[in-house]
Design brief:
alpha+beta, 4-stranded antiparallel sheet, 3 helices, disordered N terminus
Length: about 150
């Protein structure tokens, strides 16, 4: 009986881990525009949001509208010595340290199409579950809202 319970717990743990480690996110039933927007979100999280250095070599104007860039500048909480500084961390959770009960990895889990150009992005931020709503307009991220968990 004890061996059966251990096997059951291990199976449950493996199911939970497999659910968390989905990446990159795509959906065969999504329109071409939806697929492009999901690809854009995945790219932005890889290059800017989950990047070790939040100042990527990539040009953020390629991925963010003027509206979103202004909002990211406004949300920036630190001193900005040179050029434009953006709060790409505003697209993450507000946690500052890794979750000690996890491997501490940051990764995408799911992207759902909401409505009116909005997407709900679910992710693991250093092991902490997070959700952010992202609006895509004309092929760029135009707005965002952190969703409380």
């Amino acid at each position: 009986m004890l061996l059966f319970l251990q096997d059951l717990r291990l199976a449950e743990k493996n199911i939970k881990e497999a659910t968390i480690e989905q990446s990159p996110i795509t959906d065969e039933d999504v329109s071409d525009e939806g697929t492009e927007n999901i690809s854009l979100i995945n790219t932005v999280y890889e290059k800017f949001v989950f990047a070790i250095d939040s100042q990527s070599d990539e040009n953020p104007e390629k991925y963010f509208s003027d509206n979103a860039l202004k909002k990211l500048q406004k949300d920036y909480e630190f001193d900005c010595d040179e050029g434009s500084c953006y709060a790409f961390y505003a697209l993450r959770t507000e946690m500052q340290d890794s979750n000690p009960d996890t491997d501490g990895a940051s990764k995408m889990c799911d992207i759902e199409i909401d409505r009116d150009g909005w997407y709900i992005v679910s992710y693991s931020d250093m092991g902490w579950a997070g959700k952010t709503r992202i609006k895509i307009t004309d092929g760029k991220i135009d707005d965002y809202q952190r969703v409380s968990q």
